[in-house]
Amino acid sequence: MTTYDYPDELLKAQQSLNEVRASLKALVKTLPYSVEPMEAWQRPDGYWLATSPAHPASPGWSEQEQNDVATLRARERDLAAAIVTHAFWNEVAGPERPDARSQLRHALGNGDGEGQEAA
């Protein structure tokens, strides 16, 4: 397997992307399931899901919560774009780029790379 000498700014961008994604995931876990206020509801019978068919009322997200999520998503998008358009990729042969990108995701030793497929 080929190893790559990633530029520091590319590694820093990947580290920032990992951090932003972790922050976004943690934030969303604390928020109500619905962005907009929603009355309690029950899933009709016949669905195969093993989860409870009852869903409580959702107060929705506050304007601040919506802004926080939007800010993190914008930062995630900008970092992902910076990574995939970085000049380093021009130095890697086309057929090797997927492997090189995969190695970058894991180069920082941040676990299994969960949720990083979009970049």
Q: What would you say this structure looks like, in words?
A:
The protein is 46% helix and 3% strand. It has 119 residues and is mostly helical. The chain has one domain. Mean pLDDT is 89; it is low at 115-119. Residues 92-119 are annotated as: Disordered. It comes from Streptomyces vulcanius. This is Nucleic acid-binding protein.
Strand content: under 5%
H/E series: HEEHH
Number of domains: 1
* Distance between the first and last residues' Cα: 22 Å
Q: Per the principal axes of the C-alpha atoms, what is the gross shape?
A: elongated
Strand line-up in the sheet with most strands: 1-2
Tally the helices: what do you get?
Answer: 3
Question: Can you give the mean pLDDT?
Answer: 89
Biggest sheet layout: 2 strands, antiparallel
Number of strands: 2
> Considering DSSP H and I runs of 4 or more, what fraction of the residues is helical?
40-55%
Q: Could you tell me the radius of gyration in angstroms?
A: 19 Å
Pick out the low-confidence regions: 115-119
Structural class: mainly alpha
